[in-house]
Amino acid sequence: MERVSSSFGELIIEGPVPPERLAGYRLHKDLDAFRRPAEQHEALVEIAGLPEGRIVVARLDELIVGYVTFHYPDELERWSEGGMDDLIELGAVEVANDYRSLGLGKRMIRCAFAGGQLENAIVYTTEYYWHWDLEQSGLNVWEYRSMMEKLMKTVDMVWYATDDPEICSHPANCLMVRIGREVPMESIEQFDRVRFRQRFMY
């Protein structure tokens, strides 16, 4: 847990938050990038209840003003094809508009990796420009991409190549990955096969 002083009051960064505690919080009205706040709140509680699910939040008292999600890849996506139990997706990072200058995204992601929590996992994130809040941020796609790369690099995530069609569909899209120190070589090799499907088709 980390406490952050701000003009709004003291913010708390914490996680992973158990589902029963998460259910008692409420979501800021601006956290609507993926679905309506009430529906997103339900989704966060559901993810927190999964065996591999992890939710890190930034909150002002009971009000969640930012969150980060970790979960297994969606079964409809390529990343689930390897059937890996040590491959975790860093899914959504969202911070309410008024709180974006406080470095909460960086703080939440650092909280998720603190104390060696994810050293036994390959954590990846897929960055798609159509998910980015270009209008509100005032950034162009390349500036936003640079911002997201810097954010992920705070926990040593690095750019990885892939032949995934969605990522390859626009040059600003990217795959970033962090391989934990305790991940076995066979998992790394399996992940390589998932990243480059074409390379292994003969």
From TrEMBL:
InterPro entries, sorted: AcuA (IPR024699), Acyl_CoA_acyltransferase (IPR016181), GNAT_dom (IPR000182)
Name the UniProt record assigns to this protein: N-acetyltransferase
Alphabetized UniProt keyword annotations: Transferase
GO biological process terms, semicolon-separated: acetoin catabolic process
GO molecular function: acetoin dehydrogenase (NAD+) activity; acyltransferase activity, transferring groups other than amino-acyl groups
Entries under PROSITE patterns matching the protein: GNAT
Pfam family, one: Acetyltransf_1
Species annotation: Paenibacillus sambharensis
Keyword Chloroplast attached: no
Residue ranges of domain N-acetyltransferase in the record: 11-162
